[in-house]
Design brief:
binds zinc ion; 14 helices
Length: 454
Amino acid sequence: MADFTGDSPAGTSSRGYTRRQFVASATTLLLLPVIPRLARAGTIVAVRTWPADEYTRVTLEMDAELKAEHFTLENPNRLVVDINGLTMNSTIEQLVSKVRPNDPYIESVRVGQNRPDVIRLVLDLKQAVAPQVFTLKPVGEYQYRLVLDLYPKVAQDPLLAIANNALDADPLAEVLENLAQADSGAAPIPSVEGQQLPAPAVVKKPGATPPPVRSAPPSVDRPLLVALDPGHGGEDPGAIGRGGTREKDVVLSIARRLKKLIDAQPNMQAYLTRDNDYFVPLQVRVQKARRVKADLFISIHADAWVKPTARGSSVYALSQNGATSSAARWMAKRENDADLIGGINLGSHNQQVAKVLLDLSTAAQINDAVRVGSKVLREIGKINRLHKKNVERAGFAVLKAPDIPSILVETAFISNPHEERLLKSPSYQDQIAQAMLVGINEYFAASPGLARRA
Ligand SMILES: [Zn+2]
């Protein structure tokens, strides 16, 4: 608990103001009407935690924009955050109980009044982190947010993630293992059986043939890799149905079902850009798909409209120069706003990378996207009404991988009570996943030599 008491400022008495101090105080008072936000004490209105392997986010939602300072400590690892202009209330005390035992980064949280108007959070960590601490202005339903993102010091490699998550014998795991090693020169990944065999000690005898070593996989043959991108997540619920169904939940469920179907195909494997309830910025989704050299990218969403009568499924591809309809343009804007709601650190250096990446989009990927999109749309049309008969196009940020055919599937309208029930039902989730699989298979079958070879 020394953290709460160790660095309070040297005792200042309320008596014994010097004239200079008094003048400073008077000046501050005079300035109050000009900068009311700084003077006003803030209140925490909500606290949320979003633990995930990739990073854990802690969000403190407040009714005023408050300044925060942070630093990390080692032995044991801690993140200390001081929030100015805040006094204790029961909401912030709830944060202590919001840490989940399976959180990969946070062991526990302590909250205390450090100085008269400073709340100190001490996050006891399970591993050293590279924190990003930033504030977000009010947007959507949210007031001001102070965001603490805890990233691992060494970022997780999506290739490793695929290999490590692979169950049973998995043709892709071995290929990816080799890819990852070639890429990084890093230590070998544990084999799919979870065992790391030591390299055999070989004593060469004259004339003896060397012992058989595991042969490298044929370099021309690798499974077709489909990146599945469940929209939204974490702070960003996506659209919410009248019955309370959240887009982020149903699209994750559909994506997981489709992943199972794809993984059961002989020469295909799926990769999820998120497999839990946390937010992934749009450009990170694109980067992940490129990092695993996906052959296809499918972003999965649920539509919403102010009128509950709107219904049907639709499929979108990227447009570089204007949307095919005003509805498509509106839809792209709504989906692109995910980063505002979900909350990204605009100060992060990744933004520059994103800008460069997103300007590279090519016509070839869009042509292929429209081809696969048409096939997927036709299959979905067999199980649900279509909102649009053709693949629509607009400037979706998440479809901007320059080299991966990318489509966005609006599986149904979550704002339509009937379709909200469909989206919630496991049988519809299976049906739509199955329909997407058939469309994907047809596209691959019609595109020989499409798989990018390692
Ligand atoms: Zn969406």
